[in-house]
Every structure is written in structure tokens, then in C-alpha cells.
Amino acid sequence: MKNGGDVVGFEGKRDSAFQMVENGVKGNNGNLFYTGSYESLYVLGQCEGNMGNDDCGDCIASAEEQVKVQCGDSISAQVYLQGCYLSYSFYPNGVPGTISSSSSSPGTGRHQHTERTVALAVGGLAALGFLIVCLLFLKSALKKKSGKRGGY
């Protein structure tokens, strides 16, 4: 199967998934990135960092129109426009790595939030470790400097 025409309601499912991406990049607090799944479709939208959320959403909407015109009912597509990127893939047996493919994945937001929290924690610990090493180096340097003064 190379096109979604064999799947009942494919275009409607794809359009709903596209709407998720468009809403996701608009309401993602400046993240300009969204990924998710909807009824066996995996979708991803991303914009360049210099775009605002509304401009990103408009760019993604333009990419959606390009998909409809250029790709028809293809089961997979990637569209690169100046400023944004849109990709989707249809998985007849459900999107890999998701529990349910019947609706948008409810755990996607929590998963991204957990990844962000872990990244912040690891980054914070690395910064704290670097600060401690710097302080120990400074302490050592000051000891050496004060030790040389006492030797005269």
C-alpha cells in the first residue's frame, strides 16, 4: 500500500493530525516544535527559532496545503518550506511506541515534560559540579599564593 486511499477516512484522519500539529506549535509557549500521533498517523512539525508561534502555525498550515497538493493521499510525506518542516507517516498497525493508536496520545505531553525535567536536573547538577571544581581550584590557587608570601 503506497497511498492512504485504501484506508477508510484517511484524508480526514490526516487533516485532524495536521490540525494537532498546527495547534501544537501555536500553543507550545515558544517551543516551535510538536510531535504526536492520531489514529495510526505520526506527525511532526517544527519551525526555525526566529519565528513566533503564530507565524510558525501559518507556515505549518502552508506546508499542510503543499502536502495535499503535491502528495495527494500518500501514506508518508515530508515538506520543507522556508522556516518550517512538516512530516507525517501512516502506520496501518498503529504508531510504533504508542499504547493506543485510536486517538491522540495522551502521554505525549507528559513524556516531553518529563524529558525536559530530567534535562534540567542533569544540567543543573553538571553546573553545580563545575562550580565546585572552580571553587576548589580557586582555593588551591589562593593557598599557593599565600604560601609563597610567607617564605620570604
TrEMBL record:
InterPro entries: Cell2Cell_Antifungal, GNK2, GNK2_sf
One GO BP annotation of this record: plasmodesmata-mediated intercellular transport
UniProt keyword list: Cell junction, Disulfide bond, Host-virus interaction, Membrane, Repeat, Signal, Transmembrane, Transmembrane helix
GO cellular-component term (any): plasma membrane
Localization in the cell: Cell junction, Plasmodesma; Cell membrane
PROSITE patterns referenced in this protein's UniProt entry, alphabetically: GNK2
TM segment ranges: 118-138
Domain Gnk2-homologous: 1-93
Record membrane topology: Single-pass type I membrane protein
Domain of life: Eukaryota
Family stated for the protein in its record: Belongs to the cysteine-rich repeat secretory protein family. Plasmodesmata-located proteins (PDLD) subfamily.
Protein name: Gnk2-homologous domain-containing protein
Lineage: Eukaryota, Viridiplantae, Streptophyta, Embryophyta, Tracheophyta
